[in-house]
Amino acid sequence: MKPSMGKKTDQKKVNFLFLVGRPAFKSLILLISLAGFIFLFCERFFSTPLNLPTVHFPKVKLPTLSFPQLQSSTKRFLIFFISSLLLATTIYFEIFFKLPNPKQLSEFPSKLTTQILDRNGILLYKIYKDENRTLVSIDNLPQHVIDAFLAAEDKDFYSHNGFSLPGMLRSIYRDIFDNRLEGGSTITQQLIKNTILSSEKTFSRKVKELILAIWAERIYSKDKILEMYLNQVGFGGPAYGIQEASHQYFDIDAADLNVAQAAFLASLTRAPSKYSPFGEHPELASERQKIVLGQMAGLGMITPEQYNQAISEKLDFRSSKIEILAPHFVMLVKNILVNQLGENVVTQGGLKVYTTLDSKLQDQAQRIVTSEIKTLERFHVSNGAALVTNPKTGEVLAMVGSKDYFNLKENGQVNLTTSVRQPGSSIKPLNYALYFEKGHSPASVIEDRPIAVRLASNEVWTPKNYDSRFHGSITLRQALGSSYNIPSVLILLKNGIGNFADFAKKLGITTWDDPTRYGPSLALGSLEVKMVDLATAYSTFANQGITTPLQTIMKIERGDSETLRLSSCPSQINVTPGSSAVNADETSCTPKRNISPTTAYIISDILGDNSARSSAFGLNSVLNIKKAKVAVKTGTSNDLRDNWTIGFSENFLVATWVGNNDNRPMANIASGITGASPIWAKIFNSILEEHQEPQSVSPPDNLIKVPICILTGTLTCSGCPTRIDYFIKGTEPKTACDPADIQKRLNPTPSSSYSSTPQIL
């Protein structure tokens, strides 16, 4: 399914010649004026033969250069006058016409607020809801606060006249060699740019910025300019100005900031979203703060003792709950917007962003996660996460990234739905899907017996089942349903480790990018994945074999009724420069068939088969959802560090996780009983209270049901345990089992049973 493009806005047709003609006309006027000056210069300089000094070289007779002589001084004056007039006119209209007055600095226009809404128009978050600003006098600020901003933004502020020549040269170099207009701005220029000029990246705007910066420095004192800058600069969220930033992050006045806090705030102004301690990567804020402190120390603004104290100080951020719903989801959407549209458009552009989120479902999921994690403290579990999507469309309906976003002491702002964790057995359906694609059926028999696998390091690895038992001849349905480990390893070796990794990446796994980490343990979920990726992969089973990338944004409207086309699938999004439309990379954001409908149905049927998993979980586990046909799989990583449950119906997919952010192991977590499974079941049952899902799903037309012997995978015979299973027409078994052989299998002698010595593979 293609991403939502929104409604196209009516646009007036613009004459092509008008678009091309205006810059061409200005260039023509400039060329004509310059040509006049060049003509006059050449006429005066070359009107008589050149009298070169005598040089002792081989005699070379230089040609006499001459240009047509103007017949009168009047014509020469006329050419000079017209050229000067044209040049002056061009410069005037390009630079000085409607040039704002720096006296407007104290009354610049307010910025427009961007709103992030759920799918029903409910407000989730306002980006810079108000320019929350309280003016503060520079006389009331400690010197180290002023020094922090000077070190971070403009160390030569008190010595230049509004512009920095080294900065301008660096900017010109980047313009030429990096093809981008950036850098070189002093604090005065930043004040001009952020208030009375637009943020367009053009040469003429940079010239205006330079002129106005010099002009402003003749009107205002240095202290006044710095004071205006500190009172208007944005620090993220609704905080504008140093005073409100101090309150938002530390709950103190700007006058009470210490060196470490001042350096942190100074580090924010360059990219508040990127360096926010409340964002997905709070470590970036700490790294940027250390850079500012290093610059302060290098400039002699602080002593080595102050530097060491500030570096070692752990900042205690204020856990103020700003008006925000679904904060992990909102911050993900905000980052997508900033990455594609730029910080200024998002924070000042007055956008209305309609997302895929269902705020009611989000609230239910958050309450369930938070309350269930409290009951798991005795199992050494401190955090949990949940994700709800529509597997057909990829729309994210709920995203709970942790038990409490505002619990900064436990890194609650980290989004566990986008973090990498070991999936454990929840990766097994992908392995089986590849095996089924090669022609095997759920009735195919595999031996669950002791094995040993020789690794690339020449070490021998002996996988074991979770119950430390071996189950002999079992069908693939039983093996996957009961999540036995040894059959999964055998299947991986038959699939080929590299083939399986490539297959998983096709289904949406984005983190398996290092082949040196591949190995047989991949079958048991040893390699990390993201919950959002696993949800994408499972959408393939729910959606008849079509993998559907996740979507978070439905449409974006600008204040002037313009609709921006934007796709929010999280990877490889391309932005067309100079265009208001943002389009997703077709290869990563378009639904694509990766497996056959029969394989998708068989995997879903096995995961929804309560009897197939009964030996592992019992018949009455929380995994057994009775109100609808629901397929589900659990997973627990090695050493009990991650516990998962992920399952789906026709229109809903729910993934849950419990564990610890610091990767500490849990204690006595039992899949299907404790951990992620009760959270998953409660979320799914709450969905089914509001939405009716099918009790059964029809198989593809090419699948037929056949009674088979579960010990041999053949047609049944007397004495053999029998079940009805699916086969693609024409692949069903044609022969029956042997009753005598069945009796030997059911009543093995010590010599006929398998050896406890593992077979080395």
Pick out its properties:
Penicillin binding protein transpeptidase fold; Beta-lactamase; five-stranded mixed sheet; disordered N terminus
| Total count of domains | 3
Oligomeric state, counting identical vs distinct chains: single chain
CATH superfamily label of the largest domain: DD-peptidase/beta-lactamase superfamily
Apparent shape: elongated
pLDDT averaged over residues:
82
Description:
The chain is an alpha+beta fold and 761 residues long. It contains 24 helices and 23 strands. Strand 15 and strand 16 (582-584) form a beta hairpin. The radius of gyration is 35 Å and the shape is elongated. It starts with 15 loop residues before the first helix and ends with a strand. It comes from Candidatus Collierbacteria bacterium GW2011_GWC2_43_12. The chain crosses the membrane at residues 24-42, 77-97. It holds the Pfam family Transpeptidase.
